[in-house]
Amino acid sequence: MLTLTPARIQRYRRGVVRRYRVRTTAGALRFINALGFCYAFTGGPGGLPGLFDVVATRSVDRMWSWTWQWKDDLATRRRVHYGKIIRRKPSYVSLTLLPAFYALSGNLGEPDDHLQAFREGRLSVLARAIYEHILADGPVSTWALRRLYVPRGESGSRFHRALDDLQERFLIAKVAEEEEWRNGFIWDAFHRWMPQAVETAGSLGADEAAAQVLDRYLRIVGAASEHDVIATFGWNPRLTRQAAERAELSLIDVDSHSMWTIASLWR
After folding, report:
1. For 168-195, how does the pLDDT look when each residue is reduced to its tens digit (9 = 90+)?
2. What does the pLDDT look like over 75-91, one tens digit per residue?
3. d(Cα 179, Cα 109) in Å, to the nearest integer?
């Protein structure tokens, strides 16, 4: 079994982002497409980088200004998919990897996809109501939804948690910025916004889709434990192990802990 140190894995991860110095929307798109998925702003859980790791400026104000504008340009033009997808952090997924992520959501691209999650207790009553309103009347703004579903005097935390749930399950998508309300968005049903991804996902089994995502994840982070993978993507252990087998991963030892990797990365 190959043995690696945590320091060597960290050097690998730094090397992945060091190749990029991004200062334009086109550069951001190249970075997202090269990785397949990443966080939209700061790096975070699972060892995944964000655009802050490659922005060609030391000014924090410029980092936020540039990355926020890139988000608007890329997501609303359907060049990438943007939402709270990975660990409920704002994330990007390339159009190439999007069918695999969608296939893992359990959706079929049907208007009633949400009902199975609701019956199993994985979708709240509020999330169901919001989704069905978007399905019937979308595209619809955050402000319009908030007026309908946040009672006067409430903070809106349940409302925003429901929106997060719907994004994470690939039921809704941010399709535009809401011009009259800061940090507001226009929402539509995902299957209407990204029909090609839905169609392509129909030919993917869950294990094949998970193997695609896992292979790309390890090319970004170098090595990861089973726990890391489960925590990052929310898969169950059985699917995680099936994906590792299908992706033909290798086991390595890192400080007496077993981790998965792609052997060719270390040759």
Report:
1. 999 999 999 876 666 678 999 999 999 9
2. 999 999 999 999 999 99
3. 29
All residues at 6 or more sequence positions from 121 whose CB lies less than 8 Å from its CB, including other chains: none
Contact of 27 with 35, CB cutoff 8 Å: no
Q: The tokens 């969608």 sit on which residue? A: 102
Tell which residue, 8, 38, 6, 44, has the closest CA to residue 20: 38
Residue 253 tokens read as 């030892």
Q: Which two tokens stand for residue 81?
A: 């998919």
Task: Report cis status (omega within 30 of 0) of the bond before 139.
Answer: yes
DSSP assignments along 73-113, one per residue: HHHHTTSEEEEEEETTEEEEEETTTHHHHHHHTT--S-TTH
User: How far, in Å, CA of 204 to CA of 102, rounded?
Assistant: 10
pTM here? 0.94
